[in-house]
Automatic annotation (TrEMBL):
Name of the molecule in the record: O-phosphoseryl-tRNA(Sec) selenium transferase
First-tier enzyme category under EC: transferase
Organism (species): Cairina moschata
InterPro entries the UniProt entry points to: PyrdxlP-dep_Trfase (IPR015424), PyrdxlP-dep_Trfase_major (IPR015421), Sec-tRNA_Se_transferase (IPR019872), SepSecS/SepCysS (IPR008829)
Binding site for substrate: R97, S98, Q105, R313
Functional pathway: Aminoacyl-tRNA biosynthesis; selenocysteinyl-tRNA(Sec) biosynthesis; selenocysteinyl-tRNA(Sec) from L-seryl-tRNA(Sec) (archaeal/eukaryal route): step 2/2
UniProt-annotated binding residues for pyridoxal 5'-phosphate: R75
Length: 486
């Protein structure tokens, strides 16, 4: 409805009522105007009717929704199912063009506007979360691992002689495979144990650079968010080394946007040294379906190079999901979620410590990890070799998801590389342990139910362990008696 149509409406409905309706619509339009002019996440979240109005306005700007459109090409936004069309708000053309995922599509002005606005709003949120000097970012419809691969492939053209990627070890398959898929050889740097924490071995990183030659190294691939007892890499020191040796630096910030500490590390690393790009997951940081990531950096031209490396058009679904989410939450809503996550981390830490004390275990001291916690399972492991893995199964069958039980001595081969002590980020971590994380969206009820069920599972495991121990003792006693009789 425009002014002319509102004027025509006054012939059918009293003018005062029509004007009131026009004022109501004007309120929605002012929100849309502010978004288009500023390109920032609104401070207060929008209601669903405003968001749906906005998406409808975008959709009718795409050629597939023109009333008189006649399409004779191979890609005309045709959709066989009305349900599918409604699921995507009739934004069918996706984002980008064959040469650049960030490019504008001539026949899809609405989808192109959606893409530009999403990238702009996300950039604003990254700054709000702590990386103030970030200059450019874009949403890519791939999860973190493949997005890292895209970064490595972009660097290949800048460093054609390079074949190695320096990688402080983190036992997570997708980040390891991201380097293999890009055609490079990961050089694994083992972590060093400091107290309970596993930290970056800076001396080993620099020694390996000298041994291999800086020109043969594609980049350093570091990590922020991770499972305790590993903690975020020493980003500042790594960034300084990269600057000194003129080596690119790519940061895996998978679920680090929700942590002010992780974001501060990235900001400081860029300030004192070199960070070329940092990659973060959409689902882990913004509570949207899996399938998207954000690639961001401090050199706008390099981030643009990465976007141009993406072959072909791309799905708009991740961009649409995160834009709807951020418009719903607003900046204040997202900040509130970050605040609640921090509070829940302290609450989970306190509860897990009390539970550990009850079962003669301990909460591992990992102050540099702002998201993940670890509780030792030393006594459980000593009483029964398989009890640790049984605990993980028991928690899963009791509908506890996300908790990781890490036994000692696990061996895993990934792409012909064998990791000893796999999942523990170390060849020989001193004890088995259990992980739990306070991630964005977690509620007090989640923590309370988890601690209650974990307590019951530990008691059950201890009982079964004691029974098995008694049976073994009786068996050993009988064997000893028989040997004496003979």
């Amino acid at each position: 409805m425009n002014a002319e149509n509102f004027g025509s409406s006054e012939r059918l409905v009293a003018a005062a009522y029509v004007r009131q309706g026009a004022q109501g619509r004007r309120g929605h339009e002012l929100l849309l105007r502010a978004l288009l002019e500023q390109g920032k996440c609104p401070e207060d979240g929008w209601d669903e009717s405003t968001i749906e109005l906005f998406l409808h306005e975008l959709a009718i700007m795409d050629s597939n929704n023109f009333l008189g459109n006649c399409g004779v090409g191979e890609r005309e936004g045709r959709v066989a199912s009305g349900l599918v069309a409604r699921r995507h708000y009739r934004l069918i053309h996706g984002i980008g063009r064959s040469g650049d995922i960030s490019a504008v599509q001539p026949k899809a002005a609405g989808s192109s506007l959606l893409n530009k606005l999403t990238n702009s709003v996300v950039l604003d949120i990254i700054k709000l979360a702590g990386v103030q000097t970030v200059t450019n970012c874009f949403v890519v419809p791939m999860a973190t691992g493949m997005s890292l691969t895209l970064c490595f492939l972009t660097l290949r053209h800048k460093r054609p002689k390079a074949k190695y990627v320096i990688w402080p070890r983190i036992d997570q398959k997708s980040c390891f495979k991201s380097m293999i898929t890009a055609g490079f050889e990961p050089v694994v740097i083992e972590n060093v144990l400091e107290g309970d924490e596993l930290r970056t071995d800076i001396e080993a990183v620099e020694a390996k650079i000298k041994a291999l030659g800086a020109e043969n190294i594609l980049c350093v691939h570091s990590t922020t968010s991770c499972f305790a007892p590993r903690v975020p890499d020493r980003l500042e020191e790594l960034a300084v080394i990269c600057a000194n040796y003129d080596i690119p630096h790519i940061v895996n910030n998978a679920y680090g946007v929700q942590s002010s500490k992780c974001m501060h590390l990235i900001q400081q690393g860029a300030r004192v040294g070199r960070i070329d790009a940092f990659v973060q997951s959409l689902d882990k940081n913004f509570m949207v379906p899996v399938g998207g990531a954000i690639i961001a950096g401090f050199d706008a031209s390099f981030i643009q190079e990465i976007s141009k490396m993406y072959p072909g058009r791309a799905s708009a679904s991740p961009s649409l999901d995160v834009l709807i989410t951020l418009l719903s939450l607003g900046a204040s809503g997202y900040k509130q979620l970050l605040k609640e996550r921090k509070e829940m981390f302290s609450y989970l830490s306190s509860g897990l410590k009390k539970l550990a004390d009850t079962h003669n275990e301990r909460l591992l001291n990992t102050p540099h990890n702002p998201i993940s916690l670890a509780m030792s399972l030393k006594n459980l492991d000593e009483n029964n070799d398989v009890a640790v893995t049984q605990l993980g199964s028991m928690l899963f069958t009791r509908q506890v998801s996300g908790a990781r039980v890490v036994p000692c001595g696990s061996v895993q081969t990934v792409n012909n590389y064998t990791f000893k002590g796999f999942m523990s980020h170390s060849n020989d971590y001193p004890c088995a342990y259990l992980n739990a994380a306070s991630a964005i969206g977690i509620k007090k009820q989640d923590v309370d139910v988890f601690l209650k069920r974990l307590d019951k599972c530990l008691k059950t495991c201890r009982k079964e362990g004691n029974k098995e121990k008694s049976v073994n003792e009786i068996h050993d006693s009988k064997t000893g008696t028989e040997q004496l009789a003979n």
